[in-house]
Structure formats: structure tokens, C-alpha cells
């Protein structure tokens, strides 16, 4: 059986990236060489993941392209944090400080991936305004930044306590990854066909990454982690799985040259399509007063920490409220546009109804004219017949014959008008004849 090129690429990637990293972690002892090898490999695996994901971003569907690009953006952000980690260990030859300044990059890299789920690339319904999606994404991003500043940053800069910082970071990061994993799980269970297989692979990769990142963070806090250790093997495998999911999706799409209609989405998913991100964004805004009330009345943190949290909440409230008002303004403009389009459609419908009514009147008039023409034709036929008899009678005086000829002429003229009336009423076929234009002009 001949394997496809993408299959060979997957096999080579897993052998070289995951297998090679596992072999190095198990064989070589901790040291600068293993650290450099581990840092370089952890910078390479996001590149493989990006290659596998972005290969699907060349379709004609903007929603699918944005889905794969947002997933790749998340991997790129993680790689940016890893490059900063590598700078400390490989270039500066220093241990990475704890707290690490690049932790916020590792934390925020999941936000684009969560935003990608809201695009529902498998859906067949009409596209939503992309501006609303951008604002929903900005709302979610701002909310996660606020949570990081509210929960984690005070123990890093305001009241530095490594234990509190690590505990807060691990819990918040775990919640963020759980949200992403649950979103993929829901899409996996509610779809059918090729997309179900794609979501299943992405779910497995995200679940493996969540477990590996939590394990690594705990190992860092207890001082057992070093770059190139066995803790990194699941992390390397998770990024290899993200890239594999993208390559498998590309292979599946390429195999089906003629697009087949996908199975209809479940009713529950159709009713909430594109809605959960906006609801989550609104819930994020409403959560700010709750967080502020908890900070004032329940929290036992030192006063500098609580004061910093209040300032952060006030800033986040201004930013998120401005985004909400902007989103509402765009929604109002969209509604005004739809209202104008509806009014125009209503006017067109009224004009069409008027046209139909006029057509019905003309049809009724035609039927009336046809009936009247038939009634007139009968006496006209008799008049023509009697006038012919009078004109051909030898005993009739010349003057009466002349009158009979004139009566016959006017009767034929009337009959021509009646025939034209019948033709107008579509009771008789229209007769075409040659016309002497010169006689018309002279007349």
C-alpha cells in the first residue's frame, strides 16, 4: 500500500520531533547541551504545528481560513514565549527566573484558540458580520488580560511571593485551558463527517497540552523541572499533534475533490451559533463588579494587592465598557441597514401588488371586451349579408345600391375594429402583414 506524502510527513515529524526528544531526554544527563537541544526543539515544534495548521488557510471560506489562522496564532505566541525562555538559557546562560516575564505570553496564547472555536468553520449558515467577531475577540482578550492582572500580577510585582504567584498562575492557566478543551469537546460531539475527525484530533492535542503544561508548571514550582527533561515529552507531542490535525484536515479536504453537503448541525448548536462568544463577552463585563466586590469584602490579601486590583478593575471596566458600546453601535448600524433594506423590500412588494392588481383589471377588461365583441359580431354579420343582397339585387334602384355599398363599407370597418378588440383581448392570434410606409406617410 502506497502512503500519501502527508502521511510520510506525519511519520517523519513524530519520529524526529517526539521520538528524538524522548531519546535525548532519557539518554543524556542534565547539562548545557541538553538544555540547548531542548530549547531549540521546543522552538521547532510550534513551527511544525503552524505549517500543518496554515496549510488549510488557503480555501475560499473566510471563516475556515480565520479558524486555522487563529489556531496558528496561538502556537506562534507560545513560540514567542519560548524564544524568550531560550534567550535566558542559551544566550545568557542563566536560569529562567521564577516568576518569568514571558509567562503572560504563555498564558495569552490560548485566547486566539478559544476565539477560533467561535467561528464554527464546519457551519453552513450565512456569515456573520466579521466586525462583531473582532470585537467579541477583543472583549475576551481584554477579559483574560484583566484576570491575569487581577489574580497573578499582584504576586509578581506588588507583593512578590513566588508561592502565591505560581499557585495563582497555575490555577488560572488551568481554567483557561479547560475552557479551550471543553469547547473542542463540544464541537467534536456535535458534528459529523470529516470535521468530527478534525475536532477529535484537536481535542486530543489540546487535552495533552493542558496536562503537560500543568505538570511542567507544578514541576517548576517545586524545583524539579529542567529543559530537556521527560516533562517536555508530552508538550512536544501536543504541538506535533496540532500540526498532525492540520495535515489530516488538509488531506481529507484534498481527497474529496467534489464538495459533499455536510450533515445539518444539531438544532441546539444552530440556535446558539455565534452567540456564545457575545454572551461570554457580556458576562465578562458583568463579572467586573463582582470581582471588585469580592476584592473589597471577602479577600484577605494585603492592602497594596487589593488596591492594585481595584485600579486594574477600574481600568478594565473603562476598556470593556468602551468595547461594549462600540459593539452595540455596530449592531445598531447593522439593524438600521436591515431596516432600510426591509422597507425597500416592502415598497417593492407593494409596487408588485399594484402591478398584479392592474394586470387583473386589464385581464377583466379584456374578457369584457371579448364578450362585447362576440355580441357585436353577430349583428354585423347579418348587416354585411343583407347589404350584399341589396347591392346584388337587379331590381333595386341605383341610389339604394349606393347606400347598401356604403352600409357594407362601414360594417366591414366596424368588423375590423371588433377583430382588433378581440386580438387585444388575446382571443384571436395576432396577424402580421406587410405595411406600405409610403402610403402611411402620404395619408
Task: List its salient traits.
443 residues, mainly alpha, 14 helices
Task: Please report the total strand number as a whole number.
Answer: 0
Query: What form results from the Cα inertia axes?
Result: elongated
What is the SS-derived class?
mainly alpha
Give a short account of the largest sheet. none
In what range is the share of β-strand residues? Answer: under 5%
Q: Approximately how much helix is present in the residues?
A: over 70%
Radius of gyration: 41 Å
In short:
This protein is mainly α. It contains 14 helices and no strands.
Give a structural overview:
The structure is a single chain. With 443 residues, the protein is mainly alpha-helical. The protein has helices at residues 5-27, 32-54, 62-91, 103-108, 110-117, 130-151, 162-190, 194-221, 232-255, 267-271, 275-297, 303-392, 398-424, 437-442.
Describe the protein's topology.
Layout: H1 5-27, H2 32-54, H3 62-91, H4 103-108, H5 110-117, H6 130-151, H7 162-190, H8 194-221, H9 232-255, H10 267-271, H11 275-297, H12 303-392, H13 398-424, H14 437-442
Helix pairs in contact: 1-2, 1-9, 2-3, 2-9, 3-5, 5-7, 6-11, 6-12, 7-8, 8-9, 11-12, 12-13
Amino acid at each position: 500500500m502506497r502512503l500519501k506524502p502527508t502521511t510520510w510527513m506525519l511519520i517523519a515529524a513524530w519520529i524526529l520531533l517526539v521520538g528524538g526528544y524522548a531519546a535525548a531526554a532519557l539518554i543524556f544527563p542534565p547539562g548545557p547541551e541538553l538544555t540547548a537541544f531542548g530549547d531549540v526543539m521546543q522552538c521547532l515544534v510550534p513551527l511544525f504545528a503552524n505549517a500543518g495548521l496554515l496549510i488549510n488557510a488557503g480555501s475560499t471560506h473566510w471563516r475556515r481560513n480565520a479558524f486555522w489562522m487563529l489556531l496558528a496564532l496561538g502556537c506562534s505566541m507560545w513560540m514567542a514565549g519560548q524564544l524568550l525562555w531560550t534567550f535566558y538559557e542559551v544566550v545568557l546562560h542563566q536560569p529562567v527566573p521564577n516568576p518569568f516575564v514571558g509567562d503572560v505570553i504563555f498564558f495569552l496564547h490560548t485566547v486566539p484558540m478559544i476565539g477560533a472555536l467561535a467561528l464554527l468553520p464546519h457551519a453552513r449558515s450565512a456569515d456573520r458580520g466579521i466586525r462583531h467577531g473582532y470585537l467579541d475577540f477583543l472583549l475576551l482578550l481584554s477579559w483574560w488580560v484583566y484576570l491575569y492582572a487581577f489574580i497573578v500580577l499582584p504576586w509578581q510585582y506588588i507583593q512578590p511571593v513566588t508561592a502565591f504567584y505560581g499557585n495563582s498562575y497555575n490555577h488560572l492557566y488551568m481554567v483557561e485551558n479547560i475552557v479551550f478543551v471543553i469547547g473542542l469537546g463540544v464541537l467534536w460531539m456535535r458534528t459529523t463527517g470529516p470535521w468530527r475527525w478534525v475536532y477529535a484530533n484537536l481535542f486530543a492535542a489540546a487535552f495533552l497540552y493542558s496536562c503537560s503544561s500543568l505538570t511542567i508548571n507544578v514541576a517548576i514550582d517545586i524545583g524539579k523541572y529542567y529543559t530537556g527533561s521527560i516533562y517536555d515529552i508530552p508538550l512536544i507531542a501536543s504541538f506535533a499533534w496540532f500540526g498532525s490535525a492540520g495535515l489530516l484536515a488538509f488531506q481529507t479536504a484534498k481527497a474529496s475533490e467534489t464538495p459533499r453537503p455536510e450533515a445539518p448541525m444539531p438544532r441546539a448548536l444552530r440556535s446558539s451559533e455565534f452567540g456564545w462568544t457575545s454572551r461570554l463577552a457580556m458576562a465578562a463585563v458583568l463579572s467586573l463588579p463582582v470581582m471588585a466586590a469580592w476584592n473589597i469584602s471577602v479577600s484577605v490579601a494585603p492592602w497594596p494587592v487589593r488596591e492594585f486590583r481595584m485600579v486594574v478593575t477600574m481600568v478594565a471596566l473603562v476598556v470593556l465598557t468602551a468595547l461594549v458600546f462600540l459593539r452595540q453601535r455596530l449592531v445598531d448600524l447593522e439593524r438600521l441597514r436591515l431596516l432600510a433594506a426591509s422597507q425597500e423590500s416592502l415598497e417593492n412588494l407593494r409596487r408588485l401588488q399594484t402591478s398584479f392588481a392592474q394586470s387583473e383589471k386589464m385581464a377583466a377588461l379584456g374578457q369584457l371586451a371579448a364578450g362585447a365583441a362576440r355580441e357585436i359580431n353577430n349583428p354585423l354579420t347579418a348587416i354585411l349579408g343583407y347589404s350584399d343582397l341589396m347591392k346584388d339585387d337587379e331590381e333595386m334602384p341605383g341610389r339604394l345600391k349606393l347606400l347598401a355599398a356604403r352600409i357594407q363599407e362601414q360594417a366591414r370597418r366596424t368588423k375590423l375594429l371588433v377583430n382588433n378588440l378581440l386580438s387585444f383581448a388575446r382571443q384571436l392570434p395576432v396577424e402580421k402583414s406587410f405595411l406600405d410606409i409610403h402610403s402611411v406617410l402620404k395619408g
